[in-house]
């Protein structure tokens, strides 16, 4: 309000405040011990790849059913939601607002490109083309039991439609969380943490990748994530040195 009254609340200032608020909210979400315990419980049975495996399994189940049925439609939707959450690392609230030919569009090569404005920060986020797997799930979601060659015809009638509902209005509430609770007993916002954890463990020098997936700027990248990446990278180097000494290398 002080910035507004002083005439300083321009677009850049709004984006900066949005980044700061989003980081504080993310840190607040990460703080409760219950979240860490739930993530540990998930990790004992699954990893982030299991969300994609479950997406593939749901898609296969849907293919075995009459394409026009409600059960097949929900399975296709669940497969799509899981793939989108993992592919882009986006917040579930943002995914609920994605519109065809607006935030998401099909390229001539058949891949889909997602570019959205984040609800928490109002910053634009674009990671270029989605994976072929995710793109194929979007096609199947739209086609249902129709042949693949009809995709362009169907898209012409869905300009501006919500991606998940294929209608004017989107889903209210927390659809991704509902679906994740059914399969894994975790809420939707956990997926972002799982993605960062996987990157940190398997590619500890890729804090930049977490930054891009989370949609933060260099200035507002969470100190917690950066510290975790640096610690993991340091431990990897430590073990590499110890291994070299054990092998008799200088």
Please characterize this protein's 3D structure.
With 250 residues, the chain is mainly alpha-helical. The chain folds into 2 domains: 12-38 and 194-246, no CATH class; 46-186, no CATH class. Helix content is 60%, strand content 6%. The protein has helices spanning 2-5, 11-30, 33-45, 48-63, 70-88, 92-95, 132-143, 151-156, 175-184, 190-202, 207-214, 223-246; strands at residues 104-106, 112-117, 124-129. The protein has a 3-stranded antiparallel β-sheet, with helices on one face. A hairpin with a 6-residue loop joins strand 2 and strand 3 (124-129). Helix 5 (70-88) runs antiparallel to helix 7 and helix 10 packs antiparallel against helix 11 (207-214). It is globular. The model is unreliable at 231-239 (pLDDT under 50).
Notable traits:
250 residues, 2 domains, 12 helices
Helix-strand pattern:
HHHHHHEEEHHHHHH
Strands of the widest sheet, in order across it, are 1-2-3
Number of domains: 2
Helix content: 55-70%
State the shape: globular
Task: Give the DSSP E fraction (strand runs of 2 or more residues).
Answer: 5-15%
N- to C-terminal distance: 61 Å
Largest sheet: 3 strands, antiparallel
How does the helix and strand content classify structurally?
mainly alpha
- Overall residue-averaged pLDDT value: 81
How many strands appear in the DSSP assignment?
A: 3
Low-confidence stretches: 231-239
The number of helical segments is 12
Question: How big is the Rg?
Answer: 21 Å
């Amino acid at each position: 309000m002080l910035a507004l009254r002083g005439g300083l609340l321009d677009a850049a200032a709004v984006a900066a405040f949005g980044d700061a608020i989003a980081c504080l909210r993310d840190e607040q979400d990460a703080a409760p011990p219950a979240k860490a315990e739930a993530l540990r419980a998930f990790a004992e049975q699954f990893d982030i790849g299991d969300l994609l495996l479950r997406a593939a399994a749901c898609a296969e189940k849907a293919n075995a059913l009459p394409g026009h049925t409600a059960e097949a439609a929900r399975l296709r939707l669940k497969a799509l939601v899981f793939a989108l959450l993992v592919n882009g690392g986006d917040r579930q609230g943002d995914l609920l607002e994605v519109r065809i030919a607006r935030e998401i569009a099909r390229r001539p090569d058949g891949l889909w490109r997602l570019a959205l404005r984040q609800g928490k920060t109002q910053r634009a986020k674009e990671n270029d083309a989605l994976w072929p797997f995710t793109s194929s799930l979007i096609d199947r979601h739209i086609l249902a039991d129709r042949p693949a060659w009809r995709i362009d015809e169907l898209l012409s009638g869905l300009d501006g439609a919500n991606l998940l509902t294929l209608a004017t209005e989107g889903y209210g509430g927390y659809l991704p969380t509902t679906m994740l609770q059914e399969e894994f007993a975790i809420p939707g916002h956990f997926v972002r943490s799982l993605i960062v954890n996987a990157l940190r463990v398997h590619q500890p020098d890729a804090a930049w990748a977490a930054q891009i997936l989370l949609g933060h700027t260099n200035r507002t990248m969470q100190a917690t994530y950066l510290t975790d990446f640096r610690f993991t990278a340091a431990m990897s180097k430590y073990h590499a040195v110890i291994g070299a000494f054990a092998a008799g290398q200088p």
